[in-house]
């Protein structure tokens, strides 16, 4: 698509021009890693744009602090410019490279896949399985597996996830290479530790200690906290699944587990975090100043939040109603939503997580180089 | 048709740092405060939007500023730029109050960058606010509005009517004249650099070539109104704080990024293709302002920085692309000069360059960083004078009261910021001092205006 290539060139050129103005100004140095990484770059290559756009956490502090932001004729809008470049990096490094890349990265596609997964599971089950299997009441150990056999649940989820992780892995590897060669002599161990801390603490959403401009020119930590709730909630749900796997395979205890068991407690805490986090982030998006936002990317952001919200709520509904006849349909819905989420990992907003982690690792490697070149002043 | 619309204790004219500090200070002193900013909301903050740091006297390092900068050093730096024009009493007041102004600004929501942040240049004299001037302005507006200061944008003060009781102020708002009566008025509206006619009156046609680096709303109307009301002028109406900027900068609000960094590395010629100054004389931070003044006095108030591919590697490029050509003659044609003249200028310069980076046998000499302009392609940046602010103000006393030429206060009118900065700086400039003057005298003016309004 030549038109699309022209669009990509314009997006890159806009970002380059804006960042050159940043490099001449440098007032935002205290906010985040993007401006520090920019300092050592005189001319911005495609590799630099790839790196800087994914290092940007889209916190908008630099937009509200910018004397060159619209309506200024320079029209500097770093969060918006870098969002657009960043979204291109997801598409450009997609694996396998299939036609229709643009469509596959939209929120509509993610939601369509998710709803299809729910339908693909539910419709045949309702049509062909005996009604008492799907709509009957089941209780005691192995109740879930009397609706759908364990091998089907685990097989579907496992294969989808495996394929998606493979695809994400290849994409991230291609993205890593696109950022250019790593500074020679950098120590990977300390860099990994620094990057993990940046990820775990979301230091770059801290605005140099005062928070970011989540909604307008006032500073707040809301976005950072909601994101923490979401990602740590997600991690707890993952831990719940891991513990349940051990219970099932090592200890021979079959789900469903009692309310006060480890998998249910971890999953409930994690699910609550995910609900609060996704709802909070969606609320911030809806009420944010539209100035620094690339409106065309909002759909993909909201679709990921919707998927995660649906996973958490359908999980809770399943927990609450697992003794009733609603358990079967809820299990089908929950499983469908999880499968939809897994299937769209490689082509949705989810890619921001591994891509940003890679950019933070690269930044940690570069930081060592910067420190070597500029020893701290006495 | 004029109608009385409003009364308040303290009326603050202006929308920048000094005005905000005055409004907050007056409000914290218990006054009902209204602020009138001539800019629309999107351009609020005056020239403070483009600022970066405060010059602060301090005897020991703090989380926001390194080393020590004793009051004596501050005083000698001020004397160095202002010479005999400095009002000693006000200068010592500024230096003494500067020590406490950081804490006061922090208390009013302004954030500073940590002094040990390795992204900052070493500075024992100035503290940098996080995110620059617009972040500071945003924080101060949030504080002022939170305290209940009434802020009106698009409102320009046109005339003062000082009186023993309430002072009446004529305001133009949305094309309509209004009168506001206040117990005291603080004027913090900066210079008059955005008034092209006034500049032309002082600079002649050269003014048409000037670029204004800051707000288009610094028209100086309130300054003119104060002078018409009998305020004693200080400073000089024919002088400006200027730096050399890329000639393609927007007419207003180009701020810091339009400065030309590398002028000292190549050669500089006027529009006729001839060198006119020692490019190597100033290589430190003073180079920006020195070249601003030089370019302002060139024919057409324009000059050109010329370099080759080897020289270009030594400096930070302009945000605008260089004009380029394969030969000096071609470059001259691109710049609208006679090729033969620029060719002979460059040839004479190149022949005069000696090892060690200076010239011999040409006038003007280049005393440092001299290297032949010889490796094509050649490049050029057009240079213009970028005006930060004008140097005309009104005389004030230690309470920031505006004084008449007989030394008596102009009833109930106070001033803060660039409109009274020439009392201290004359027509000189010290990095970070304008913001400190704005905050220190804004704070004083607000407090004193509130006290005056209570009388």
TrEMBL record, chain A:
Gene3D superfamilies: Transmembrane di-heme cytochromes, Chain C. The chain crosses the membrane at residues 109-130, 150-176, 229-247, 259-284, 296-321, 327-347. It comes from the Bacteria. Keywords: Membrane, Transmembrane, Transmembrane helix. The keyword Transmembrane helix applies. The keyword Membrane applies. Signal peptide: none annotated. This is Signal transduction protein. It comes from Azospirillum thiophilum.
Automatic annotation (TrEMBL), chain B:
InterPro entries: CobZ, FAD-dep_OxRdtase_2_FAD-bd, FAD-oxidoreductase_2, FAD/NAD-bd_sf, Succ_DH/fumarate_Rdtase_cat_sf. Residues 9-421 form the FAD-dependent oxidoreductase 2 FAD-binding domain. Signal peptide: none annotated. Gene3D superfamilies: FAD/NAD(P)-binding domain, Succinate dehydrogenase/fumarate reductase flavoprotein, catalytic domain. The keyword Iron-sulfur does not apply. The keyword Magnesium does not apply. One of its GO terms (molecular function) is oxidoreductase activity. Its cofactor is FAD. Keywords: FAD, Flavoprotein, Oxidoreductase. This is Tricarballylate dehydrogenase. It comes from Azospirillum thiophilum.
